[in-house]
Amino acid sequence: MDPVDRLRVIATALPEVTEKLSHGEVSFFCRKQFVMLDDHHHGADHLAFWCAAPPGAQEELIGSDPARFFRPPYVGHRGWVGVRIDRVGDREPDWDEVDEVVRDAYRQVAPKKLVELLDGA
User: Three-class SS of residue 101?
Assistant: First the structure.
């Protein structure tokens, strides 16, 4: 499956998520934006997405795998993280990890009742 379609399946499976274009890119919202596609933004050499992240997660993810994770322009200073969803060297994306990162991004913006619904509380 195409990486953008896989990202779409992950994001739209979350409660009350809508897909819209934002700044010309596929983006996902739960009232507020939590994921934005980075399809070779301004000539970048990657296909990725930028997403909201819990405090400290940006540094942790980039430190754990700087080839896969990065500090995105415009929103990186707010703690958002960039996640490559293309092939990096001989490695394909870890879609379980992508799912976890997207869910964490959702938790940053979704209303408490929806987060509880997601977490089965």
Answer: helix
